[in-house]
Amino acid sequence: NAALDLTDASGNASPSVGIISPSSTYSIGPDGRGQINLLINTGTLNNPNFGVNGAITLSVVFASPQHALLSETDSFGSATGTLDLQNATDLTSFQNGAWANGVYSLKLSGVEVSAPNPGYFVASAATIDFTSSSFAYIADQSDNGVITSVPFTTVSNNLNITRSQNGLITFNSLNLGLPTRFNLDAWLIDATHFVVTDWRDSAFGTPPVIAAGYLTAQPSSPSVAGTYAFTEAGATAGAQPQVAGGILTCGATGALDVVPLGGTAVSDAPVSVACTAPANGRSLITILGTTTTTAGISQFAAYPTSDQGIYLIELDGPSAGTSGPSAPSGAGLALQQTLATPISSSALTGNYASNFLASTTLGSQNFAAQIISGGVSTPTLSGTADVTFFNANPTPPTPPVGTPSFGAALTGSFTSGTDGRFPLMLTIVPAAGQPTPEFAISHPACYIVDANTCLLLGLDVTAPGTGILQLQQPNI
Length: 476
What we know:
- This protein is mainly beta and 476 residues long.
- The chain has helices at 88-95, 201-204, 291-294; strands at residues 3-7, 13-18, 25-28, 33-39, 55-64, 67-72, 80-84, 102-112, 119-129, 134-143, 146-155, 161-164, 168-174, 182-190, 193-198, 209-217, 227-235, 241-249, 253-260, 266-275, 283-288, 299-304, 309-314, 329-336, 349-359, 363-374, 378-391, 401-414, 421-429, 441-442, 444-448, 453-458, 465-471.
- The strands form five sheets. A nine-stranded antiparallel sheet has the order 11-10-9-8-16-15-14-13-12. An eight-stranded antiparallel β-barrel has the order 17-18-19-20-21-22-23-24. The chain has an eight-stranded antiparallel β-barrel with strand order 25-26-27-28-29-31-32-33.
- β31 and β32 (453-458) form a beta hairpin.
- The mean pLDDT is 93.
């Protein structure tokens, strides 16, 4: 038994939709891969034509018994995400009324509901006292590349929340000083980590949006310093899909990749990096270089998290209410690089859980996979993936459709870089009887974070995308 929030562009917007059980099923193999088939109670929806006869299929690959990566692999939709086991002790504390007061970083990513569905991103630091309902915030919004930044603001008795016994906090009419008063559901993972969904603002937001993300506690003494690997997804100044990533060292130098769909990529360009100390939970990261080396990407607002991460939102667009020039937009994640340079190929060794989502001229392509790296002695890659390529605008006009390919074989290789930028080559070979993906060969960069993690950035202008590799723990 379970519950989920559901919203889509066809008008569905429903909280805690029931999942029919035992009709919903799952299966997991010894390599940590498998599928979760969710049968949705469509009787509560405005448009019952949801999923494939009311069902959605999620391919899953576990990195640990507590954490897995997801990818939707059916003909209805295209998405990637995460699956996390609720911490039983923290859930019990939550049910007994215990609240973890403090500063939280919020990240929301999504799109406007109206076509052509421009990108919509929000990042914020929220100081939350659940007991007294006092509240403070600082926030940034990027809506179709237009930036709204809200200074630090303190309010009293303005936190309207409800909670459920399954670990759900609902923020009703949450005021971050932005045009939308958000109605967010925060689903507890543990005392300091929540998955966030926003079902109501697809109809009542300003503008109406579909967005989701994470709410994560900040450390008690946040800092933005040292070296970070980062990726972001967004759009060019001309509103074409674009991804960017690299390895940046605050107060020193870095290397930047920028990949627009169908455009000209910037590859491993040298840049200078400046970072400010966090004020009220928010820092600024400035990237300096020529227009050719940065493709217009110059500044991020950065919100630290307690797990050595930073939620990023790009600030290069014009401010709301002005007529400034168009600029790139996007949002993403930075993780502190903890391996000392030079980084050798042995840093990428073992069995990894992975997911990846790329934009294409037709729509998108995504996968969930186990990827095996031979490391220093054998810099080759192998593995198995469930892949979906999604046609958002089929001809003649028909409903968008995804084409899954289950159990595809992966082969490939990689080249190590001393700064932790490892270019990969992956070839997808479909299993017998399965369709060939739109793009069978990809060339992502792997930005090494530590011995367990690297961030992926697709370097092909035919399929720019973002993803992750996470080392699988033994006995998953």
